[in-house]
Amino acid sequence: MEHVSVLREPVIKYLALKGGEIVVDTTLGLGGHALMEAKAVGKKGKLIAFEQDERNLKEAKKRLKEFEKQIIYIHDNFRYLKNRITGCGIKEVDAIFFDLGLSSPHVDDPERGFSFMKEGPLDMRFDPRQKLTASEVLNTYKESDLANIFYEYGEEGLSRMIARKICERRKTAPFLTTTEFAEFMYSIMPYKKGKAKKVHPATQVFQALRIEVNDELNALKESLRESTQMLKKGGRIVVISYHSLEDRIVKHFFRELENPPVKDVHEGLYRVHGEPFFESLTRKPVIPTDEEINANPRSRSAKLRAYRKLRDLDPEEV
Question: What is the pLDDT of residues 235-261, one digit of tens each?
Fold first, then answer.
């Protein structure tokens, strides 16, 4: 499937780029949003683009060749945002963009192991340079750890049963391929047998494995903290998330910065709030229109939240 950037118009609206800014795209992918950002900041601006996947990075560079003089490419995880940006001699930026979804090549290439629709190795690494794979998680983690991962990262109610069955099965043969594991999941989910279901029983566990392999939620938390420090006063952060775990992290993180507590101050049972560090620009998350979903079904779960920085904050306050 051709890669289509999600929520293009709201992204540009809430980044509010006028030209000449320094913008960070933390998840370059194939460069769809970055192309819009590079055009918006113009020749006097600068785009700093993070991408873990070397193949995505190469394709994005081709797409953005016209703007290569104004782009700094960083082949790394966005959790190192502050260190890598300051290492480029940049002290603050005007806007930061996160698109937390999978890029099309990850889903469409069976060799990456992200999808159970086609046979491939149980890999799921965004960055092939790292060692941990989904196969290693399934075949070596303790039963209790697997259960916790499936429950916390996949919100799977049958996490303990699934973990137990996995550990029983791997004693005779390790899990090696995506389709093999998907078929196993289908065989152990009693409420799915013989019923036509829109959601495959392996869906939530695959999500949990991917999050564990790439340490996605911790990386997001670290990057959000560093983003608030690197963003200049008046600057904006725009985040597109695709599942409730990511969206919850973003919402709760900025809620604390919109209503920061005054340290060590209490008035009865009421929490005393200080002056806000950030303000929300989206009262409710922005979601794709029916038209966009029909044109790009992968956009259906996207939620965009946007925030503006009101004042500087100490790193200890985040």
Answer: 999 999 999 999 999 999 999 999 987
What is the distance between the alpha carbons of residues 3 and 217, in angstroms, rounded to a whole number? 24
Longest dimension (CA), the chain: 62
Query: At which of 178, 199, 214 does a domain end?
Result: 214
Establish if 3 belongs to a structural domain.
no
Cα–Cα dist 261/2, whole Å: 46
Domain count, the chain: 2
Spatial distance between the Cα atoms of 54 and 154, rounded to a whole number of angstroms: 27
Q: In this structure, is residue 95 part of a structural domain?
A: yes
Q: Are residues 56 and 97 in the same domain?
A: yes
Verdict on whether the full-model pTM lies above 0.85? yes
Q: What is the pLDDT of residues 34-50, one digit of tens each?
A: 999 999 999 999 999 99
- In sequence order, what DSSP letters do the residues of 1-35 get, joined into one string? -----SSHHHHHHHHT--SS-EEEES--TTSHHHH
pLDDT at 1: 46
Name the residue range of residue 63's domain.
8-105+216-317
Question: Tell me, what's the pLDDT at 6?
Answer: 93
Portion of the chain with pLDDT greater than 70, in percent = 90
- Tell me whether strands 261-267 and 231-241 are parallel, antiparallel or unpaired: unpaired
Amino acid at 159: S
Of 179, 214, 249, the position where a domain reaches its end is 214
Distance CA 251, CA 285 (A): 9
